[in-house]
Amino acid sequence: MQAEIIAVGTEILLGQVVDTNSAFIARELAGAGIEVYYHSLVGDNADRLTGVVKQARSRSDLVVISGGLGPTKDDLTKQTVAHLLGVKLVENEAAMTKIKNHFATTGKPLTPNNRLQALYLAGSQPLKNSTGMAVGAFYQAPDDEADMLLLPGPPSEMQPMMTHEAVPALRAAYQRHEYLTSRVLRFFGIGESQLTTKLGDLIEHQTNPTIASYAKRNEVTLRLTASTTGSAEAQTLLDQMTATIKERVGDYLYGYGDDNSLANVVVQRLIDQHLTITGAESLTAGEFQSTIGSIPGVSAVFPGGFVTYANRAKHDLLGIPQRIIDNDGVVSEATAKEMAERSRKLLDTDLALSFTGVAGPDSLEGQPAGTVWLGLAQRGQAPQAKLMHFAGTRGDIRMRSVLTGLDWLRRLIPAAK
């Protein structure tokens, strides 16, 4: 099977919205053993959409379209596709009932345009929208023509429909005997070139599973993809390759999955080990606390922290002796250690992480922009500090500081057995 994905939306075409749907759809199709050869992007224009769909149908077995199923005037996908295929649009009773119930509950009038969301291609399999109202459709064309899969544009609607409705329909229709199973490995502290160099022979001679590297902001990921006839065989192949990779670069491997992050890993380890943490931040201005604070469940291990941007705040809030600030400076090992240890004692936590340095663009205390001291305090141990030098904008330096601090914690806190 050869598939093509078309994202519809003028807002995407103009760069006002980022197209994340195509990547998600491609991963789901790969898991169903369907290869994606082309991605296209078109605005909300019937003529241009018709041209793009015609081209896609001429070279692909399956055309997947996301977007344009809503009730507004610029939502033209199913009307355009129906005209192109020469089929009618029919009403899905379950979808229409859901729409009526929604408007009855909210007390708003049900306008004719909202009824459009219950329409789908005649002769197709309607796909239930569990989080919205626009019904999707899987249309299997006669003879050798390309099949069509229509999905809503909002990711919150498209993703559950793709996973729970479309993929099972595709598997049933195409009866694939081989499937692609992927695993994402996430790395911090090593660049893509260094990582691929250490894994050079594995990448050069890859067969099954395959290995693909992706450089992302402040980290690198590897996607391992196994082609098998069953999930057990796939997991065995992926486990074997993962073990080989960990032998070489496991020190930099922090987690797995498309949606994982260092903050997720650290907070989960804190919860698993029943360890509490606080933070004292100068140059990062609360970014560390904001980052871990965004993780569900963090309240169990994070009682609060300190943002001590000014020297006076370091002295008044944390109690750092003025002599240390005067003699060593705020961009110093001594200040980083004091910030960490005093914040830990004030909130009686097991751990504390501190950040002080120069975010730029100007120097401070004779230290150039990018000079950062990280401090770490642990209950019952002497505080530690690390000196780092980062490059980039103020935002880059701050984020790199936070991630480096999280990675320090990740290496310190053991994973649950």
Descriptive notes:
Belongs to the CinA family. Residues 4-173 form the MoaB/Mog domain. Pfam families: CinA (PF02464), CinA_KH (PF18146), MoCF_biosynth (PF00994). This is Putative competence-damage inducible protein. It is a single chain. The protein has 417 residues and is an alpha/beta fold. The chain has 3 domains: 2-174, 3-Layer(aba) Sandwich (Molybdenum Cofactor Biosythetic Enzyme, Chain A), CATH 3.40.980; 180-256, Alpha-Beta Plaits; 262-412, Alpha-Beta Complex (Maf protein), CATH 3.90.950. Helix content is 42%, strand content 23%. The protein has 16 helices and 17 strands. It has helices at residues 10-13, 21-31, 46-59, 77-85, 93-106, 112-115, 155-174, 192-198, 200-204, 231-249, 262-273, 287-293, 311-318, 322-328, 333-347, 394-412; strands at residues 2-8, 35-42, 62-66, 89-91, 119-121, 125-127, 136-139, 147-151, 179-187, 210-216, 219-228, 253-256, 277-281, 306-307, 351-357, 371-378, 384-389. The chain has a 6-stranded mixed sheet with strand order 2-1-3-8-7-6, sandwiched between helices. A 5-stranded mixed sheet has the order 14-13-15-16-17, sandwiched between helices. Strands 10-11-9-12 form a 4-stranded antiparallel sheet, with helices on both faces. β6 and β7 (136-139) form a beta hairpin. α2 (21-31) runs parallel beside α7 (155-174). The longest helix is centred in the middle third of the chain and has 20 residues, at 155-174. The two termini are 41 Å apart.
